[in-house]
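Minutes, project check-in
Item: structure for the 152-residue chain
Input as provided by the requester:
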Amino acid sequence: MFLINHYEKINKWYNFKIIGLDLKYLAQKMNEKMTELKKIFTIIIGDGAYTSERPYTMLRFAYTALLEEHKINIFLVEDGVFVGKKNQEPASYDNVGKWMKDVIEEGANVKACGVCMKARGISQDEFIDGIEKTTMNTLVEMCAEADNVLFS
């Protein structure tokens, strides 16, 4: 508990002078509240790298959410496995490979469907570092832990 004995308006904000405030308790409560506000998003990318803007939009969303300290899981499925390929050099599109590297560097957990990779002739060594070949069981786990699931 704390008591406010005086406040004054400074610009648009109020400056509160607080008596008897337990700063350690307040910091603990603020951390608890911030943890409650953080979400887990699982993003399933099924569109190819440059067949639509959806993968690009999902990666921008993921990057923004990571900057806001949310947890991001990304699962590449169907033609979405092409989003994870190394050495992409699109002529007239924003490079989704660069965005994928950026989200991995910011802490995204990125997996790819092994069956989808095999069907499209893609091997693990063709992927950007940090993307792991896996199974649908992993996707189920990602979706089960998520607060929100997005599919593109």
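Outcome recorded: Strands lie at 3-10, 13-19, 40-45, 71-76, 109-113, 131-134, 148-151.
No further action items on this chain.
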